[in-house]
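Table 4 source record.
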Amino acid sequence: MTNLILTAALKGTIVLGAAWIATALLRARSADLRHRIWLAAFIAMALLVVPVSVPQTLRMTIDANAAAPGTVSVAARSLPSFALVWSVVAALLLLRWGLGVLRLFRITRQAGSAGAVLVSPTIQTPMTWGAIRPVILVPAYVEDWPTEQREVVIRHERAHIERRDWLWQAFAQIMTAVFWFHPLVWLAAVRLRQEAEHAADDATLATGVQAPDYADRLMAVARQLSGRSPAPAAVAGVAMVRQPALTSRIAAILDSGRIRTGASVGARIGVVLAAVALLVPLSAFQNRNVYRAGVDGVTAPSVTYKVNPSYTPEAKEAKIQGTVVITAVVTATGRADDIKVTQSLDPGLEANTLAAVSQWLFKPGTKDGQPVDVAVTIEINFKLL
């Protein structure tokens, strides 16, 4: 699994880099268009993580034991540590977001109704959340505002609901948890959120709200945040005001020359086509033509050189025995590629298996006399003598 994520992260760097360049070149266009570009980049990265089914027809069984010689590379020693750290950090980030959603659910149940919105004294900034039945939450101090000023806040939050921003930001949170080690993913998540706020601001101003009045409401909310830590619920909700991006938002709101229309149908289609054009070559490896031995005259590959995976001291001490099963593609060049663990036994033994098989050499399978890529399943039996 971690191999697939690392590969997707490497390819995702190209995707996010392209999105960064595109949004920079389109900085004079609407925020809605830039938001769609960042969203398309996240969707492309998610598709890169989707494993492609590999035909499993050729099965090999190799025995490895504590007395047999083996090789453990530096990479092999680091893989279990990375897998463990990745799992822990990803789980903590998802837990943090999940607790935020739970907090929002509790606040919503305890909030009082005030027409189209719910009022809660426990939040600091207006926000919206929810995909199926989205709700608008406003702090208690908003009730002291005149009706016209409250309406500005409601229009902003309705714009988020119409744009489904909570759903997209929740998706970005999940992608950030998966690729937490990739700095560009964090930056992309920030840009996605910022462009969503700019786009909601544009939609609010398009309803007839005056820019100075709207900027004044944002400042009024920001003053309530001064010197206080953000509410835990703001982690999972679409908050109206976040301090770091407030200055740029105010400047954009007061910029009379800014384009505030949403992305045109042609621009949306262009974003999709550009994402597909970038994704297809990056996914070519996953979607390459892999043959099955014994079908249509395809011959099976055979091992010409192998390194037996060795036991780790921890596995020996714990007396762990069993089988690690991996799938791979033996390429036309005679090397194992796209190696994935389908049945694990122990993180250390799994890592040593991956490191060993990556060094194996094969006589490649053939079709019509020509070497071709052939799928294999390899079982490594670990036994203590």
